[in-house]
Specification:
2 helices, 8-stranded antiparallel beta barrel, 12% helix
């Protein structure tokens, strides 16, 4: 009996020496370069470039058309709220019959608030809102709300929007007038 126990003991302890070595392949670690942290895309610097064309909509007065380009930049708190400031260039058509200046050009400088109505997290396009408030050289104050559609994802979007502009300036009779414009905006946002 003693010999059986010693033989069994030696067998159990020497068995691992006869086992074959095998290399085990473990799964690879995920590559971090493809990982996108969605929170980083929701905050930080943003900027937008846009162009706009439109016309005033005054009854019983001479209407004036315009084209403009602008650049806006600021801080993005999340996809529902962005705050910024911008400037641009505006050129008027039929200027001589409406404004009290010979210059066809104006430079708008403004503050901007904008955001999305719904989340763009899992959508390629979302409706957005934007409001510009500021002044235009050789005119006065202006307010420019826009409602539109942005497509492309969370960042790097193209957008199209309908805008309304209310501005005041001195007309050719040198009296202060409020003018309303409707416009179409096309742009790109980073």
């Amino acid at each position: 009996m003693k010999t059986c126990i010693i033989t069994l003991f030696l067998f159990v302890f020497t068995l691992p020496m006869f086992a074959q070595y095998r290399e085990v392949n473990l799964p690879e670690k995920p590559k971090q370069s493809k990982y996108e942290n969605i929170i980083d895309k929701n905050k930080g610097f943003w900027c937008a470039f846009d162009t706009e064309a439109g016309s005033s909509i005054m009854e019983m007065k001479t209407n004036m058309q315009f084209i403009s380009i602008s650049f806006t930049s600021g801080y993005r708190f999340n996809e529902y709220l962005r705050i910024g400031a911008g400037f641009g260039g505006k050129m008027y058509i039929n200027n001589a019959y409406v404004r009290n200046t010979k210059s066809k050009f104006g430079i708008p400088v403004y503050a901007n608030l904008r955001g999305n109505f719904i989340s763009a997290y899992d959508r390629d396009g979302v409706p957005f809102w934007s409001v510009n408030f500021g002044g235009i050289t050789k005119e006065g104050l202006f307010l420019n709300p826009t409602i539109g559609y942005s497509f492309g994802g969370l960042r790097n979007n193209f957008f199209i929007g309908l805008s309304y502009t209310l501005t005041d300036f001195k007309d050719f009779t040198n009296s202060k007038q409020n003018y309303s414009y409707f416009g179409l905006k096309l742009g790109y946002e980073l």
